[in-house]
Specification:
mainly beta; 3 helices; eleven-stranded antiparallel beta sheet; 220 residues; globular; single chain
């Protein structure tokens, strides 16, 4: 499971500026049709096997690239519950937070990739592997490139490419908490026709395997 299956809701509120080149594609990408076809993807699905829930605080610094530059900050809590429930509840500026959530794409857990995307492996340099995810349903997103760490099966970078030419990209670092690998910081850039921003997200105060009501995940 990805530590944050939805930061589009927040996590994706996260991320280095510019459209990074994750790595050079192979001339013949390897199609992934099952977990048996990719041991790394299987390890990504099984990351943090004893983690059932968590709650953490999140702090976002946003630099909006508008005619009148704005630099709002947001604070709140992020919640996770197996298998793939995630939510972010901001403490302040509810109207801004609501709009902010709508901008970012959804981050689906690796366990859901083969159901939602046509998945292929673009490259593996011995340290990192790049997967390309093409949505099975037609929408705004052309494809999503994901760079995974070969050693620990965490996701290092995401880059969404949109059909209108825009993109969202972010990178993340992890920390080990009670044997679990969890996001510590994410930095990223949003470059859409109507919205441009740099975003930094910091996660702290993790509480693991605590009780979380299902109502937390209801869309507000």
């Amino acid at each position: 499971m990805t530590a944050f299956a939805r930061i589009g809701i927040f996590l994706i509120a996260l991320l280095g500026s510019g459209a990074p080149v994750l790595s050079a594609p192979q001339s013949d990408p390897l199609a992934i049709t099952s977990l048996d076809a990719s041991p790394l993807l299987r390890r990504m699905v099984n990351l943090n096997p004893t983690l059932k829930t968590y709650k953490a605080t999140i702090h976002l610094d946003v630099a909006l690239k508008s005619f009148v530059p704005l630099n709002p900050s947001l604070d709140g809590n992020i919640f996770f519950k197996q298998p793939d429930k995630e939510a972010v509840v901001f403490d302040t500026v509810p109207s801004l937070a609501s709009q902010f959530k709508k901008v970012y794409p959804r981050v689906d857990a690796p366990a859901n990739w083969l159901r939602l995307y046509d998945v292929s492996q673009l490259s593996d340099d011995g340290t990192s592997t790049v997967f390309r995810l093409v949505p099975k349903k037609n929408g705004r997103i052309e494809h999503l490139d994901v760079k995974a760490d070969d050693a620990n099966a965490t996701i290092k970078e995401y880059t969404w490419t949109y059909k209108d030419g825009g993109f969202v990209t972010f990178a993340q670092t992890f920390e080990t908490i009670s044997g679990n690998l969890l996001p510590e910081k994410q930095t990223g850039h949003v470059e859409l026709p109507s919205y441009k921003a740099d975003v930094t997200s910091v996660f702290s105060n993790y509480q693991l395997n605590v009780q979380i009501a299902d109502s937390v995940f209801d869309e507000k």
